[in-house]
Amino acid sequence: MDASLRAELIAFCGIETEFNDAWGKPTTVSEADQLQLLAAQGFAIDDDDTARSQLLARQLDYWQRVLPYVSVQRADEPQYLTLQVTLAQANTAVALHLHSEDGGAVSFELTPVDGELVQVVVLDDVEYHQYQHTLPQQLAPGYHQVALADGSVTQQLIITPGQCYQPSAFSQQKQWGIALQLYALRSTRNWGIGDFTDLQHTLTYLAKLGADFVGLNPIHALYPAVPENASPYSPSSRRFLDIRYIDVTAMPGFNQCARSQSLVQAPAFVTAVSEQRSKDFVDYEGVMQLKLPVMKSLYQWFTEQSDKETKQLQKAFRQFKQQAGDSLMQLALYDALHAFLYQQDNQYWGWPVWPQEYRDPESKQVKQFARQQKAELDFYCYLQFIAQQQIAKAQQVAKDAGMSLGLYRDLAVGVSEASTEIWANPGLYCRDASIGAPPDPLGPAGQNWGLPPMYPYQLYKQAYQPFIELLRANMQHAGALRIDHVMALLRLWWVPKTAANAGGGAYVYYPIMDLLGILALESQRQQAVIIGEDLGTVPEGIRELLQDYGVYSYRVFFFETAADGGYISPAHYPRQAMATLTTHDLPTLIGFWHCEDLRLGKDLGLYPDEQQLQQLYAQRHVNKQRILDSLHGHQVLPADYSRSTEHLGMDRTLNFALQRHLAAGNSQLLCLQLEDALEMTQPVNVPGTSNEYPNWRRKLSQPLEQWRDNPELAGLFSQISEKRRQA
């Protein structure tokens, strides 16, 4: 490909050809990798004339609109309107209507040339001008509309605040909470998987000990038809909830419905529930086989009732469906169709391999299925309604118990290729690439997460509505939201499917100022604190920008090291941050100290190079000694406690001391893992594995009823609360 054409295409697509890697070394993306990324975005890299035509078509799509698709502006800055016209149209007045979110409307005229000329381009021998005009009125934060008087072109005008939500309580005290994998909760009452009622009980217990929140794994909708697709970070829809977390016994009619009671009281069912509770790893298939038939029976009961109380619930359900709109119906249609096809042939694991006539949600066959299976679709909508009600109740329980934040939710960075989101909106996603990470210390070969990225321009063309809906849905019934891989607001590492490995990609840029503005607006409206998972390769200046917008940094103790290799004191962590000892992708404290992760990695074949493994062991030994030195230096261990890691195992004294050490730190937020308080060894997830290790299945070692009665655990959590009050 001609070098100048390639450069123009690269610039248009926002592909970064040079970047600093995780070690700070300047790195250049090879020409071959650049071309493969252009091919993934649909350009004919083997035919320059065709590629030029494709580029021109995309440029004209932007410039031939009088009003850009969307404009995101700050409320504390002068507000403007952009007009894009040909040179010949520059002196022709444009009639416009401004509709503000509060219902106000203003009609006015602007002559393009009277504004400030900000850009000129020539495309296909036509000169286009872009002019900026001051808006006739200053708008409040919100979603407004500007349209041509004839209604032919509309722009979404989004006015945003300058910062995400900051609770007033943050100025008075520091907060702490516990992170857990909801599915991992054991109890004497659940059906083999943690549910929303278990969550309520956990919130009540922790609130009494002074905790401010409970952090959850992503609880996005997965795949009812294929329950073993269990990764919460490869969901089907991030707008809706995983129905497996529904407490069936808390569904309307459970005690009144004779049909449902006959199902759950059958000896075989009782035995199956007991077996599921006793398993150390969640059997998703088995759990769904228990839950779905009873859920369906209770849905039927719900539709048959006519008493006053149920009628009110039926009205609420209708309102829920209306408010959730097309996205809910698309999910219900996908789940029903998926179940129908998968029962016929288990090769139909997702829509990319369905019969051709079902791959388009607008096809005649799909619409016919939706008409014929209307009740089945309504059933899946009902399950989402129930899930929303149960999580809302959990948040209310937390707030009533005195928690300042309550639920702290997690927004995954993407969806799997077989997801509802991509099936329903295929033009938004690039299926010829997936997102991941370039080589770094945690992944020397890079990482490929198998999640198709959104096209930045298509997201812009859709007025950022998919992004807005994601934020709004995940901030609902939550006091805080963690944005997984928050760097995605700026750039994502795209790996073309043709790449030899995850290192054969490049960064693609996104409109960060627009996305940050929307994040701030939704955060303020939902009153949700925002935590950005800013780990990995972080470009210069991005943390400062996130800080300016009130996004809390994510600081992991094991990664917070000084230039000499020692561990930074938590007293020196930034105030605007959430501190944590470890995460779901890292070993537990005991696993780290006993090198269980390295042994497991060797068994799983993650370290084919024995020399590399031995280097990791040696480094771990050094790290442990430095941690021990730091703890003694801060006097959080008894004076007579060992000062050498030689033959020193992780005991409760050391474990709890580490947690108290972090609790005394400077960060506004502290998040500890429940696994560490329970002194567990096995990890939740081993990055770089799929079937080699049972990721996202390992349960907690003790049931809720046991550990909440443990005085030593209560003592630790009370000490954590006291440390936070004093910090």
Automatic annotation (TrEMBL):
Coiled coil: none annotated. It catalyses: Transfers a segment of a (1->4)-alpha-D-glucan to a new position in an acceptor, which may be glucose or a (1->4)-alpha-D-glucan. Its EC number is 2.4.1.25. InterPro entries: GH (IPR017853), Glyco_hydro_77 (IPR003385), MalQ_N (IPR048458). It is an enzyme of class 2 (transferase). It comes from the Bacteria. GO terms for biological process: carbohydrate metabolic process. GO terms for molecular function: 4-alpha-glucanotransferase activity. Residues 67-161 form the MalQ N-terminal beta-sandwich domain. The keyword Transmembrane does not apply. Keywords: Carbohydrate metabolism, Glycosyltransferase, Transferase. Belongs to the disproportionating enzyme family. This is 4-alpha-glucanotransferase. It comes from Rheinheimera nanhaiensis E407-8.
